Amino acid sequence: MSNVIACAYLRVFRPLDTYGEQERAHWERYIVSGGPPQPPRPVYREASSSGRGPLGLIASDVGEYADVRLVDGRYLVCPWRTRLRILASILSLRESAPAEVVDAFVPEAEARRAARELARLRRREPSAVPSILQSAWHVPLRWFVLVDEEERTLTPDEDGGYRLHYWTPIGRCRARAERGARVLRRAGLEDVAVLVGELHEWLSAFHPGAFVELDYAEVAGLFTWDELDDDHSGRDIQRAIDALDGPEGLGTAGEIYQGVANRWAEARSRESLN
Fold it and tell me: Most buried residue, 127, 142, 246, 274, by most Cβ within 10 Å?
């Protein structure tokens, strides 16, 4: 079953010359060939570890490719690693789903198959880490901990819509995640601190010369130009963390955060409806 789903992405792009010889040669050939064929709109399919059963996860339905950026004469590559992402998502969903419904979403046998295959993949390539985080219908607010206003770009795209994205050196993202988790933990917001800490741990697996792209992608199509132009969620989340870490305290930080949450409330409601 295939579906068109508006998704946002958090991608890590490594410099081409930081990959191992075999993988680097593969991506060099890929770049020379012109990359993947472009479908008219991104299409996703339901996926599981076994290809059958009740579990439905969104996954790209156009093959195993990569996103490529040319920055200052240097190629940066973000492999999709679709299978790796599916398997990791299956296990994550089983861990996070409520106990009373977990078996309906991720049966134990499905999770065991996913764990075995994921272990095989990581034995073959110990450094294999998903280079992309994906979110349907909205941008998770914790992603904005990684970015700030000067890294934000809003432009018309070639399809007549709009593109809003942030482009940030990975070292800056790591530092912000580390500080954010520390400030949140000190303020007693342990649950949010854990989520931000997980982002820091994920980013720590990548080469220090990498870049992070927070891309609204198809989610931008849920908003008008004026709504996107008024959306400064990265700046606002940084202001909330600064307030939490300073004399303004939890009250001011909460007001700023709530403003960002309200901005995203309608978009997030689509996740439940779908």
Answer: 142
